[in-house]
Write a structure and sequence with these properties.
Length: about 500
C-alpha cells in the first residue's frame, strides 16, 4: 500500500487540491478566519454570492484558481453545525478525497476550522479526520494493468489550521492514532477484497503470521487439520471437508494487561469462499462470497491494532477459516455433526455454515476463561433484510455490553442495531434427532432468521453442565461489511472495514 504522510500546518503550502469544509449557516465568516484578505477568499466569496454553493450537507463545488501552488479548491458542505456527527464528518471528508483523486490529485490540503475542532475536541477531530482521509483514499486496483486506470494515491495530506499549541498537540496525538486505526481498517479491506483463488485458508493464516513477525507484541498459533481433528471440532471440519484446501484455525494473542486479568476474546467467521456447499447458492448470490471471511480478519486486525496502540488489555482473536464447497466429500443436509464439547447438531442447510465454524470457536474460547467474547460474522442475509446494509445487527443477553458497544459505534460513526434473542428463537432450534438443529424459524417462512442464528450461537456460550453463561457474550452480524462499487461517494466499494473502529473504541 502507498505510504501517505500526514501533517498539521498553520500555513498553506503547495497542494494539488485544497479541500475547504464549510457549515451551511456560518457563511464566509468561518472561511475568512483562515485566509482573510487573500485571492482565495475572494474567489470563494464570489461563489457564495451566486448561491452555487451554500454549504448544505455533502454539497461540493470545485473551483479552479490561477495560483500555481493551489490550482484547485474543493468546497464541501457540512450542513448545519448542530447536526454534524463524526459519521457525517467522515463521509463528507471521504467524498471530498474521492473527488480530489478523480482529478489526479495526490497532495491534498484540508482546512480544519476552529469550529470543527471545538465541535469534536482536538484529539477526536485529529483522529477521525485522519481515518476519514486514509480510508477514503484506499483503492483495491492492483490488478488493473493500465496505470492510468488506477486511483491516484495520496502521497501527502496537510491539515491546515491556525490552532494554539495545546490544541495542536492534542490534534497530533489523535492524528497519529488515526493513522494506526486507518491502517487496520484498510488491512481488513485489502484482505477482504483479495480474490478467492488467492485468499484460501492457508493464505489468510500466513497473513496473520506475517503480522506477528513484524509486531513482537503478538503471538500467533495456527492449528493444522490434524490439530483441529484432535480437538474434535466436528462442526468446523464438516464445513471444511468439501474443499480441496485444508482448514486453519488462527489464534492471535496480545497480552497488554496484567497477567491475572481475564482476556477479551474476539471470534471471527473465516469462510474464504462460500458456495453454499451442496445447498448451493443461485448464481447471482455467488458473487461477493469472497467477503465471507471478513469476521475473521476483523478479529485479527482488531487485536493487531490494539497492540500497536498499546491498549492495556489482554486480547485474543480466534479465527476458524475454511472454504464451503460442494466437493465429493462435502457435508450433507440431514448429517449430524458433533461440536468439540460433544453437542450434536442436525444439519438442515449447508449454506448456514458460518454458525458451525463459530460454535466450535465459541466452545474453544472457554479454555481461556475470558471476561467476555465478541464475535464478528457475515452470518445471515436475514439481518440485511431486517435492517439493511447501513447498520449491523447486535445480539447479546448482557445489557451493559450492548450499551457499551452501541455507544462505541456511535462515537466512531459506525452503526449497530440491537436485535432480539429470546426463548421463542431458542425453542425453534429443538431437534428430534440431535441436541440442536442448525437452523430454525419463528412463525414459518423462515421468519426471524438473524435471531435464530444468534440463538444457535448462544447455545455454545453456555457452560455444558450448569447451562449458565460461561462468559459475557455479544454477536455482531455484519450487514454493513461490504458495499457495491459506486453506491457510496465516500467509499469506492468492496469491503468497508466495518467493526474495527467500534471494537477499538470499546476497548478504550
Amino acid at each position: 500500500m502507498t505510504m501517505t504522510t500526514y501533517h498539521l500546518k498553520k500555513e498553506y503550502g503547495t497542494h494539488d487540491c485544497l479541500i475547504v469544509p464549510l457549515f451551511q449557516e456560518k457563511g464566509l465568516k468561518q472561511f475568512a478566519k483562515q485566509v482573510v484578505n487573500t485571492p482565495l477568499a475572494t474567489l470563494v466569496r464570489e461563489v457564495w454570492k451566486t448561491k452555487d454553493f451554500e454549504g448544505t450537507a455533502m454539497q461540493t463545488s470545485l473551483l479552479y484558481t490561477e495560483d500555481a501552488h493551489i490550482p484547485r479548491v474543493l468546497l464541501v458542505g457540512l450542513g448545519k453545525k448542530k447536526l454534524l456527527t463524526i459519521g457525517s464528518w467522515k463521509k463528507t471528508i471521504g467524498s471530498a478525497i474521492a473527488v480530489s483523486q478523480s482529478k489526479k490529485c495526490g497532495k491534498i490540503g484540508v482546512v480544519i476550522s476552529n469550529e470543527v475542532i471545538k465541535h469534536f475536541g482536538a484529539k477526536v477531530a485529529g483522529r477521525e479526520s485522519t481515518i476519514a482521509v486514509a480510508t477514503a483514499g484506499y483503492a483495491y486496483d492492483e490488478h488493473k494493468t493500465d496505470p492510468d486506470a488506477r486511483v491516484t494515491p495520496l502521497t501527502q495530506v496537510d491539515f491546515v489550521s491556525d490552532t494554539d499549541v495545546p490544541t495542536a498537540k492534542a490534534w497530533t496525538v489523535g492524528m497519529r492514532e488515526g493513522e494506526v486505526i486507518a491502517d487496520g481498517v484498510n488491512l481488513i479491506r485489502h484482505l477482504g477484497n483479495t480474490p478467492p483463488q488467492t485468499m484460501i485458508p492457508s493464505y489468510l493464516a500466513e497473513q496473520a503470521k506475517k503480522l506477528a513477525e513484524k509486531n513482537k507484541k503478538l503471538r500467533v498459533t495456527i492449528l493444522s487439520l490434524a490439530e483441529i481433528k484432535k480437538l474434535g471440532m466436528g462442526c468446523f471440519l464438516g464445513v471444511a471437508q468439501g474443499s480441496q484446501h485444508e482448514p486453519k484455525f488462527v489464534i492471535m494473542e496480545y497480552r497488554g494487561g496484567k497477567k491475572s486479568e481475564k482476556p477479551t476474546v474476539f471470534v471471527g467467521k473465516g469462510v474464504t469462499f462460500d458456495s453454499g456447499g451442496l445447498s448451493i447458492k443461485p448464481s447471482t448470490y455467488l458473487c461477493n462470497m469472497k467477503y465471507d471471511m471478513l469476521g475473521a480478519v476483523t478479529a485479527i486486525a482488531t487485536v493487531h491494532t490494539a497492540s500497536l496502540l498499546g491498549i492495556k488489555k489482554n486480547l485474543i482473536a480466534l479465527a476458524p477459516t475454511c472454504e464451503n464447497m460442494p466437493g465429493s466429500r462435502a457435508y450433507h443436509p440431514d448429517d449430524i455433526l458433533t461440536n468439540m464439547e460433544g453437542f450434536t447438531v442436525e444439519i438442515d442447510n449447508t449454506d448456514a455454515e458460518g454458525r458451525l465454524l463459530l460454535c466450535d470457536a465459541l466452545s474453544y474460547a472457554k479454555k481461556f476463561q475470558p471476561k467476555e467474547v465478541i464475535d464478528f460474522a457475515t452470518l445471515t442475509g436475514a439481518c440485511m433484510v431486517a435492517i439493511g446494509a447501513e447498520r449491523s445487527g447486535l445480539f447479546s443477553p448482557v445489557d451493559h455490553l450492548v450499551k457499551a458497544l452501541q455507544t462505541s459505534a456511535q462515537i466512531v460513526g459506525e452503526s449497530l442495531w440491537h436485535l432480539p434473542l429470546g426463548q421463542e428463537y431458542s425453542e425453534s432450534l429443538k431437534s428430534q434427532v440431535a441436541d440442536i438443529r442448525q437452523t430454525g424459524e419463528v412463525g414459518g417462512r423462515g421468519f426471524g432468521g438473524a435471531s435464530t442464528a444468534a440463538a444457535f450461537l448462544q447455545h455454545f456460550t453456555l457452560d455444558r453442565k450448569s447451562k449458565e453463561p460461561a462468559y459475557d457474550w455479544a454477536h455482531i452480524d455484519m450487514s454493513s461489511s461490504f458495499i457495491q462499487s459506486g453506491t457510496k461517494s465516500w467509499n469506492r466499494g468492496g469491503a468497508t472495514g466495518f467493526g474495527l473502529q467500534l471494537a477499538i473504541e470499546y476497548l478504550r
